Amino acid sequence: MPALQTDCDGFRLLPGYLKRDQQNALVKTVLGALEAAPLFTPAMPRSGKPLSVQMSNFGPLGWIADRTGYRYQPHHPETGTPWPAMPQQLLDLWTAVSGWPEPPQACLINIYGPASRLGVHVDADEDARDAPVVSVSLGDRARFRLGGPLRNSPTHSFILSSGDVVVLGGASRRFFHGIDRIYPGTSTLLPGHFSPGRINLTMRRVN
Ligand code: SIN
Ligand code: FE2
Fold first, then answer.
1. How far separated are the first and last CA of the chain, in Å rounded?
2. Domain residues for 74?
3. Ligand approaching nearest to the C-alpha of 118
């Protein structure tokens, strides 16, 4: 497999960007948020088929998926309450790596179990198409697949480890990508019922 360029088409992988204590702090913040905004299981539009990843959100807007489609909304689909505020640690990370002057409006919390995967897709539900996507990996390693602008563009796969930060900027903002698989038991970060497993936090501008 060819080595992945770490700054190619605006795509950046920052390995080990978050140190262990920063990862721990972030996990604690996520667990707190999930008490207020419990995980929900998104469903594929039309078919209603559940995704294997569970979700919640931070920030003024949250991404959801159900039978009627994909969208952003200011409240939790089950409790109806606003999403927990964007944590300062994530705002600081965004400022440090995004190069974008405005703060993120949404942070999707993806929770992967040992058998979860995320099919190849483009992040396309945002009107803000130039702002980068910044994402953080916590917990077990995962195999990330990055393609190009077309569904049949050639792809590369590489491993994301706990503390890694990915920036999809420039052209790569609209590239196909997904998570092929999780490698259970490759991290000791996550507590009890999230282990084996992985948390991914994905910040975006929406409009
Ligand atoms: C996503 O593409 O929404 C998540 C990617 C990841 O889990 O690293
Ligand atoms: Fe994505």
1. 37
2. 5-204
3. 1
Distances (CA, A) of 57 to 109, 129, 152, 171, 185: 5, 20, 30, 25, 25
How many structural domains comprise the chain?
Answer: 1
Q: Which residues line ligand 1 (CB under 6 A)?
A: 110, 118, 135, 137, 144, 160, 177, 179, 200, 202
Which residues neighbour 117 within 8 Å (Cβ) at sequence distance 6 or greater? 52, 53, 178, 179, 180, 181, 182
The CATH code of the domain that includes 11 is 2.60.120.590
pTM, entire model: 0.95
Identify the CA nearest to 112 among candidates 81, 83, 139, 147. 139
CA of 45 to the centre of ligand 2 (A): 16
122-157 per-position pLDDT tens digit: 999 999 989 999 999 999 999 999 999 999 999 999
Q: Kindly give the distance from the C-alpha atom of residue 179 to the centroid of ligand 2, in angstroms, as a whole number.
A: 9
